[in-house]
Fold this protein.
Amino acid sequence: MLRLTLAVCALWTGLLDPSLAAETKTPWNVLFIAVDDLRPEFGAYGDVHIQAPNLDRLARRGVTFQRAYCQQAVCSPSRSSLLTGTRPNTTRVWDLETHFRKALPDVVTLPQHFKQHGYFVQGMGKLFHGGFDDPPSWSTPWTSPKGSHGTYGLPENLAIVKAKVAASKAAPKKKQGGKVRNYGPAFESADVPDNSFHDGALADLAVTALQQRAEQEQPFWLGVGFIRPHLPFVAPHKYWDFYDPAQITLAPNPFPPRDAPAYAVMPGGELRSYHGIPTGPIPDVLARQLKHGYYAAISYMDAQLGRVLDELDRLKLTDKTIIVLWGDHGWKLGEHGGWCKHSNAENDTNAPLIISVPGLESAGQGSSALVEFVDIYPTLADLCGLPLPGHLEGTSLVPVLRDPAATVKSAAFSQYPRAVQGRQLMGYSMRTDRYRFTRWVQRNEPTQVDAVELYDHQTDPQENTNIANDPANRELVDRLTAQLLAGWKSAAIPNTP
């Protein structure tokens, strides 16, 4: 199988420098990097205010996908979809409580597929959602560090968490209701070493893993899952110093989309679970502190990414390794008056995706092609010459890696559930080249439409005004409805050999 893989990889002379492809003596390794809650907001996406030199360094080695979309903007549904190569209605994962193996007991995950084709497959950090590891996916048990300090570095913040835990244990047990959230502050700046926290300790593990694999002839698939900039925005103090609070601007549209259903974008209950965060609107001073913390957390994660890339270079593995980096979904920082993810809005569904392949002739370019996270599985299999499993619901992006101006689909599809006044709704959303169109329907009776959203990105890129109810757009709504109902299969554009 390894010889077959090598033979197929050598065929990508249109994608790779021909001399490099001819010199390749082993199959590509794969370094698979997940980043939690990362917005497409750093240099490769045109935002120079974020200090993330290693994200930009990786972008110079690969293709940056400007319009990549997750299938549901929350951790477990997004990750389950990406790692199985199927959409949420197939995984039946729409929440944080369901394992995809319940609906798909025999599905072959992305890492598992590589394991079955001769790769040593290792996972560490947050890849699947916390608490939902998948042992069949790995050659060696998945691991995740906590760091020497745990979540917080300041004693006063650790004391807050300790007091909350004690209070929850002493309180009468509720027969109903959600989980007790014993969260500390939403952000922290502490003068501690990088490996005091998860991502620094994770980089230590990843460096060691690379050193071990460099001594072996067997190709590897290494998954590394960073958790920052997920809440709480905790980073060593030096990363906070990268930013001047006075220069941090607030969201330009801190209001719900006009004429949209009230449930389209929610204010962000996840953030409200943290100590010191009000239940109502976020004051400007606090909003600026939160953004400062988010940016510092990105820079902290970026430094750990840099350590992994440095070791890959030092071990002379870079020219033998495909690198893919993705953020599991977008994130709101006050846009539409909301925080966190949990919607079908562009802010939440659009997420970073960078793919680097040794010898890539298009390295350093960006692509505006519409792509989806379900496309990552077939792309990596395609690049490494592995057969494509029949269950996949995405499209290989190799044509776009060859030519960033190419397109492989006419639309990207996302969805998000809502419970609204006793109604169980599902919002099915479609992003075309110009429009975002969302149709909210009853989950058990999808012909029953509760609301429709339409945003014209040519005139309204922030999705501030829903124009679906304008009589002048009736024909457009009908056309987009038909396209949405035709589904993701109809959006595929046949590839030219």
Notes: The radius of gyration is 22 Å.
